[in-house]
From TrEMBL:
Record's keyword terms, sorted: DNA-binding, Sigma factor, Transcription, Transcription regulation
Alphabetical list of Pfam families matching this protein: Sigma70_r2, Sigma70_r4_2
A GO molecular-function descriptor: DNA binding
Native species: Paracoccus methylarcula
Keyword Transcription among record annotations: yes
Family: Belongs to the sigma-70 factor family. ECF subfamily.
Domain of life: Bacteria
Domain RNA polymerase sigma factor 70 region 4 type: 114-161
Protein name: SigD protein
Keyword Glycoprotein listed: no
Domain RNA polymerase sigma-70 region residues, every copy: 18-84
GO biological-process terms attached to the record: DNA-templated transcription initiation
Length: 170
């Protein structure tokens, strides 16, 4: 998946091809009594979700739990559409649910994506203050801003960021 995210289409195709039988096994094991076409629909929904959401996978984390979570969600969705009560055992996945305490590892990445949409000076200011967690004096020196000008620039940058978030529905 790491290679695929870097643009290696051949590796990505091989990954999805090798992933399909594993997903079929998971779906069939949990969908006793359902026909094979129904199971294959769930597998294809899972593969499509993996494809569409591949950018949300954190490459520093194992891939398997992320894939299994998507498959479980697609299976539950399919059962709901069918109108059947859903029970998905989580015992074998319980280790994956506990997150280590601390900051969300994707938080800075998401913030950086938004900040990149700002004009360069605004982006540099927010990177310095928020992402690098530098003080006002250091950021002011780095950007050539007096304390009052820094406060005004920060206020304007945050207003622009709010407009971007509102326009994109974030």
């Amino acid at each position: 998946m790491r290679s695929a995210l870097r643009g290696d289409a051949e590796t990505y195709q091989r990954l999805l091809t090798e992933m399909a039988p594993v997903l079929r096994g998971i779906v069939r094991a949990r969908a006793s009594g359902m026909d094979l076409d129904w199971c294959e629909d769930v597998v294809q929904d899972s593969l499509m979700a993996i494809h569409l959401k591949r950018g949300t996978w954190d490459p520093t984390q194992p891939l398997r739990p992320w894939v299994y979570a998507i498959a479980r969600h697609k299976l539950v969705d399919a059962f709901r559409r069918k109108g059947r009560a859903v029970h998905v055992p989580v015992d074998e996945f319980i280790d994956q649910f506990e997150a280590e305490p601390g900051a969300d590892p994707l938080e800075n990445r998401d913030a950086e994506i938004l900040i990149d949409r700002l004009p360069e000076r605004d982006a540099a200011l927010l990177r310095c203050l928020a992402l690098e967690e530098r003080g006002n004096e250091e950021c002011g020196r780095r950007l050539g801003l007096a304390p009052g000008a820094l406060r005004v620039a920060l206020h304007r940058a945050l207003k622009r960021l709010a407009v971007i978030r509102k326009e994109e529905g974030l």
